[in-house]
From TrEMBL:
Classification via PANTHER family: ABC TRANSPORTER ABCH.1, IMPORT ATP-BINDING PROTEIN
Pfam families attached to this UniProt entry: ABC_tran (PF00005)
InterPro entries according to UniProt: AAA+_ATPase (IPR003593), ABC_transporter-like_ATP-bd (IPR003439), ABC_transporter-like_CS (IPR017871), ABC_transpr_LolD-like (IPR015854), MacB-like_ATP-bd (IPR017911), P-loop_NTPase (IPR027417)
Highest taxon in the source lineage: Bacteria
Organism of provenance: Ectobacillus antri
UniProt keywords, alphabetically: ATP-binding, Nucleotide-binding, Transport
Classification lineage: Bacteria, Bacillati, Bacillota, Bacilli, Bacillales
Listed name of the protein: ABC transporter ATP-binding protein
Record-annotated ABC transporter domain positions: 6-229
SMART domains: AAA
Length: 229
């Protein structure tokens, strides 16, 4: 039996703009199992970024139930959400979000500092992750000394260093050229083959096709799903 990592039931998100209710997400039902590689595919304005923020515990739904690793996330306060984010979610962003004054290894260590991991342990884990993503020779380089693809590899190492339940990637190749983007997607394939659970947010069908599952979102509603055999 598949182990559920994420279970969303009737997730709705509304905003009030100019006194009018705007429904951004409408009754989203989504299950992600351990070891899945899922892409959430949709155009700009489809609601995919809002859905990503709720999956990543950066935002809360207006209504509905969200379970992450069997914990009911939508009832947690800000402090509890921060703990969940650091423990359960590894974020990979389009623009890398690296701190420019820190070296690659210092950037990768950051989540472990927040988690209270002792210095010697976190340095060793950061080294192992950078080596894993092919940057064993670049640990002391700062972001401006790295190519875009290398910066994204640092970001992926940082996302993985806490051994999160889900690797959540937002347009991970959006700031890269096509060749470099393909190399990054190959790295995601390798991580998936190791058993990691990956959810990728994208507007690009070619990038989405790298995933095992494609879930389409349009106008705040999940429309259809395609599973690669």
């Amino acid at each position: 039996m598949n182990e559920q990592i994420l279970n969303m039931q009737g997730i709705t998100k509304t905003y009030y703009m100019g006194g009018e209710e705007q429904i951004v997400l409408n009754q989203i039902n989504l299950i992600v199992n351990k070891g899945d590689f899922a892409a959430i595919l949709g155009p700009s304005g489809s609601g995919k970024s809002t859905l990503m923020n709720i999956i990543g515990c950066l935002d809360s739904p207006t209504s509905g139930n969200y379970y992450l690793s069997n914990q009911k996330v939508d009832e947690l306060d800000e402090k509890e959400l921060a703990i969940i984010r650091n423990r359960e979610i590894g974020f990979v962003f389009q623009q890398f979000q690296l701190l420019p004054r820190l070296t690659a290894i210092q950037n990768v260590e950051l989540p472990l500092i927040y988690a209270g991991v002792p210095e010697r342990d976190r340095r060793q884990r950061a080294k192992e992750m950078l080596t894993k993503v092919g940057l064993g020779e670049k640990m002391q380089n700062r972001p401006n000394q790295l190519s875009g693809g290398q910066q994204q590899r640092v970001a992926i190492a940082r996302a993985m260093v806490t051994e999160p339940t889900i690797l959540l990637a937002d347009e991970p190749t959006g700031a890269l050229d096509q060749k470099t983007g393909q190399q990054i997607m190959q790295l995601f394939h390798e991580l998936h083959e190791e058993g990691r659970t990956i959810i990728m947010i994208t507007h690009d069908i070619e990038i989405a096709n790298h995933a095992k599952r494609i879930v389409r979102i349009l106008d705040g509603t999940l429309r259809e799903e395609y599973v690669h055999v």
